[in-house]
């Protein structure tokens, strides 16, 4: 799936609904686009990742996947 595009002003206001961190574009393990917290959200080295469904980011805490990042980035 191609990564959906937003107007810059929309992209600038998207935040994690739990930690209120900025969200960055990533690709999940299946090669699908996702949004992920730019800062640790669930403890050191752990961040929430939000899926895209039908071109819409699903920013619901219950649908997020907590992932471990090796170097804090």
General description of the model:
The protein is mainly beta and 73 residues long. The chain is built from one helix and five strands. The chain has one domain. Strands 1, 2, 3, 4 and 5 form a five-stranded antiparallel sheet that branches. A hairpin with a 5-residue loop joins strand 1 and strand 2 (33-37). It is globular, with a radius of gyration of 12 Å.
Keywords summarizing the entry:
73 residues; mainly beta; five-stranded antiparallel sheet; 1 helix
Q: What is the straight-line distance between the termini?
A: 24 Å
- The total tally of domains equals 1
Give the helix proportion (percent range). Answer: under 10%
- How many whole angstroms does the radius of gyration measure? 12 Å
Short description:
By secondary structure, the protein is mainly β.
What is the fold's blueprint, element by element?
Blueprint: H1 8-13, E1 23-27, E2 33-37, E3 46-53, E4 56-57, E5 65-68
Antiparallel strand pairs: 1-2, 2-3, 3-4, 3-5
């Amino acid at each position: 799936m191609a990564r959906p595009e937003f107007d810059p002003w929309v992209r600038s206001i998207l935040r994690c609904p739990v930690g209120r961190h900025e969200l960055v574009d990533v690709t999940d393990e299946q090669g699908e686009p996702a949004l992920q917290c730019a800062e640790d959200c669930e403890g050191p080295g752990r961040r929430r990742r939000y899926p895209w469904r039908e071109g819409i980011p699903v920013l619901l805490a219950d649908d997020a996947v907590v992932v471990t990042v090796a170097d804090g980035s």
